[in-house]
Design goal:
The structure is a homodimer of 148-residue chains. Chain A is mostly helical. Chain A is built from six helices and three strands, in the order ααβααββαα. In chain A, strands 1-3-2 form a three-stranded antiparallel beta sheet. The radius of gyration of chain A is 19 Å and the shape is globular. Chain A binds a DNA duplex (23 and 23 nucleotides) through helix 2 and helix 4.
Amino acid sequence: MEKRATQGPGAEDDLGAQLRVAVARLHRRFRSERPEGSLGDAALEVLTRLHKHGPRTLTELSEDDRVSPASMSQIVNRLTSAGYAVRTRDPHDGRKVLFSATPEGDAIARAARAQRHAWLDRRLQELSAEDRAVVARAAALFNKIAES
Amino acid sequence: MEKRATQGPGAEDDLGAQLRVAVARLHRRFRSERPEGSLGDAALEVLTRLHKHGPRTLTELSEDDRVSPASMSQIVNRLTSAGYAVRTRDPHDGRKVLFSATPEGDAIARAARAQRHAWLDRRLQELSAEDRAVVARAAALFNKIAES
DNA sequence: TATTGTTATACTCTATAACTATA
DNA sequence: TATAGTTATAGAGTATAACAATA
């Protein structure tokens, strides 16, 4: 039942388990920052992307977050129902739909980020510059790992 | 607008956003490794903990994962329904319930980890030793951040 | 009264399958 | 046929509120 003997009993093996647990905990911590009655985490990330990068198609959004198009369709439904985003047909390809943030959506994206990231920004500020560099490198590594 | 253009306020701000997105993506990637019909991510992590560390009370388990006791109660319900864990009353304190993995649960914990972490272990092996150290340090930092 | 645990309920997030509309 | 998007349905994960049992 033993692990990987590369570096001694359990050492390498533990890194995977440690990473999994740490990421799950941090993800729950992020979710818990949601104020009452506001958008959920996934919806807010999409809204933030629309706010920052302008109109995107459904397929693009689903690829950005690596979720199925059907899942993304439901996320943007929450945004359009709330009046934070709108659909427009692509004039050059009638199959495509472009999603954009409304002015209200832009305001929500700004406000929500400020509220919900305040504690994270504070924590990051408290780290040493070296530790912040570790976090930045780790984030890049995670994106690579998640793609594979 | 800008991409970490300066060392000013915007640069620090970006790290938080990058971390959030990277963690969300990696978390979804972890979840997607679930084979058909098997336990979900949260349930498997609890089962793994019971397998590794022996009997735990509900409160202990909920604190381990930083979820509410009510949420953890539902997670362990899935485990007991499946026959992977059992409840026993604490003989010294009738309010407490001790949860333990069954032999079947132990087997599932071992097998599931091997299956579901295979790709992650492979990815981590592909990293340089330096990058693995970055991941390990980041995992420790995440636990600290999640606690705060 | 305080602690431990459970159930009821509701919402977010996500997936697969089946569908429509356009190219 | 292939691509873009939607809807229906289901299940995991999580929370709050209300409750019961034990200390």
